[in-house]
Give the backbone structure.
Amino acid sequence: MDCIFCKIASHEVDAADIFFEDDNVFVMLDRDWAVKGHALVIWKEHALNMSDLSREDFLHFSDVVRKTEKALLETLVVDKSVVLKSGGIVSHFHFHIYPILSSMSWEAIQALFSKEVRNEPKEGESKQLVADLQLAMGVD
């Protein structure tokens, strides 16, 4: 299978921006930052839809999404997130979490999704954010 998320999950492809991983899920910063801290929560086993997961697996996935959102909000000192289920570009079950301020307008949020706006990380910023998020997620 030629799925980038499957390759990352099996460690065929290196992903330096992973800040949480367990037996079933990994969480990483998106390489294409819509906003600072734009994160992906990815089910390791190849699946297309949330209904492909058992109830127990989906509850575990949801718990990781919740824990990730909390870590992002606290680490980046923002008060809101937008969470989307995706599968458009990469057909593998995952959620995007966009940490934002609640004062952000709907037009500004739409610009994020249309890729009109991008937040390019400064040198070393991504590495530092990964370390901060690992700490917030309780990763050693």
User: Anything to note?
Assistant: The chain has a mean pLDDT of 91. The chain is about 35% helix and 20% strand.
